[in-house]
Amino acid sequence: MMGRPAYFPDSVSYLRGGSFAVTYVADRLSPPPPVVVQSGRDRAGGQVEAEVPAGEARGARSIAYSIAAYLLSWPALSMGLLAVVQAAIIAAQLALFSRLIELRSRWRFVGAVAVLALASPVAIFANYAMPDVFAATGILAVAMLAIARNRFSSAARWGLMLLLAISATVHASHMPLLGALALFALLGELLRSHREGVRLILALAGVLGAPLLLGALITVTSSWVGFGEASLAAKRFPLTLARSIEDGPARWYLQEECKRPSYAICEVFGTDLPETVPAFLWEPDGITVRATPSQLDRIRAEEQEILLRAAERYPSAQASSMFENSMRQLVQIGFGDNYIDQRIARDRSGDISLQRVPAPGGQAALHLLGWATLLSTALALIALLLFVRRLDHDRRVVLALVVLGLLLNAVICAVFSGVTDRYQARVVWLLPLLALFFLPSSKRGLLGKTLRSRASGQHRTIDQPEAAPATTNGSPDR
Fold first, then answer.
1. Engineering a disulfide at 458: which of 108, 262, 453, 462 sits with its beta carbon 3.0 to 4.6 angstroms away?
2. pTM of the model
3. Taking the domains of the chain in order of start, what are their residue ranges?
4. Which neighbouring-strand residues pair with 353?
C-alpha cells in the first residue's frame, strides 16, 4: 500500500530476536576472539553492558519466525522480502485450493482473488511483518488435508503439510488452535466412517498429526538450544495472568495473597497490582521492566497455579469474563495495530526501532478497507448460510472446519491473550474466500466422483487426468 510492510512494535522484537539467534549460533560455529574489559568501562569511559545469556532473557517470541524475519530483512531492514514471501505462500495455497475444488474458470479465480485483495484483510496481513496471517493458512491447510489428502500429488501434499507445520510454529496461539481443529477433523471422520474406514482415519491422523508434531519438535528444540528450556512456550510473556488480572479474578486473589507474600509477583507489586494488561506487562512500571529475569521465570512457573486458584475462588466472575471476552473477540475486527506509517530504523548506537514516516492517505485506505471487510464478511456469511443445503458433503466439511477455526481463534486469543481487533481480522477473510470459491455450488460434489469412491481405494491426484468412460460396442456406457 505504501511501498513497505505494515509494522507493529512486536515486529521489532522478532527482528531483534532473530538477530540474537543467528549471532548466537554463528558465534558457536566460529567463536570471535575474546575481548578484555577492564572495570566494566570502555576506553571512552562509557559503561559496558555485558552480553545477556540467552537463558537470562526476559521474554521471547517464536524463535522460528524471529529467525525468518531477520534473514528476510536483508538488505535494508525493511522486512519487505518477508512480506513478499508471505504473499507468495498465500497465493500458492489459494491456487492449490482452487484446483482442489475444481474451480475450472481461470477468470473466476482471478476475480475472486481480486475481490479478496480489495475487500478483505488477506492483502494487508500478507503485507504485515507479523506471523498473524499463518493462523488462516493453518486453518485452511487442515481443512484441505481433511477432505482431499489422497487426491494431492506427493509434492502438493508434502508442501501443504510443511505449511501446516510452519503455521503451528510461528506463534504461540497457533499450536493450540490448529491442534484442536485437527482433533475435530479426526472426530468428524470417525463419526462418519464405518469399520472399513479405520485405515482412512489413521491416514488422516498421520497427515494432520505429523506436521503438528514437527512444529512442536522445532519449537521445543529451538527453545532448548536458545534458552536451555525444552518447552513449547519458553520465556513466554504471562499474558493469561495479565488478562485475568485485568478482568478481576487474579487481581482480587493476589491482593489477598500478597498480604503474606508467597508468589514472585508479590515481590514486584505487593498488593498494588496494575489493572490493565499493558500496565502489567509493557509500561515502565510493568513486570518486563521491574522484575528481574529470575523473578520473571518464577512468575511464569507460578502463573498456572494463580489462575487455577483465582478461578476456584471466583468461578462465576472467571467464567463470565471468559465468555464475554470470547464473544467480543469474535466480532471485533479491525486494523488498528497495522502501523503503515512506520518504518524500521537504526539509531546511532546500532539499536533498531520503529520510526514514524509520512503516509498520506494510508489511514483513510485502512478505514475504507475495514468497512469493506465488514460488508464482505457479512455478505459471505449470509450467502453461505442460505446455500449451505446446496453444498455437497466435502464443501460442508471445509465450511464447518473454517467456522470452527474462527470460533477457536476467538476463544484462544481472548482467554490466553486479550481482545484485539487484529486477532480476528487475521482469519476472517476465509469466509469471503469460501463464498467466492463455493458459490454457486455444483450438485456433483466437491471432488467429483473421486472421493465418493474412496472406499474402493480408487483415487487420482490433481496432476492425473480423469480416466475416459468405458465403452461397449463403440457406445458410451450408460
1. 453
2. 0.81
3. 9-29+57-232+336-443, 249-313
4. 345
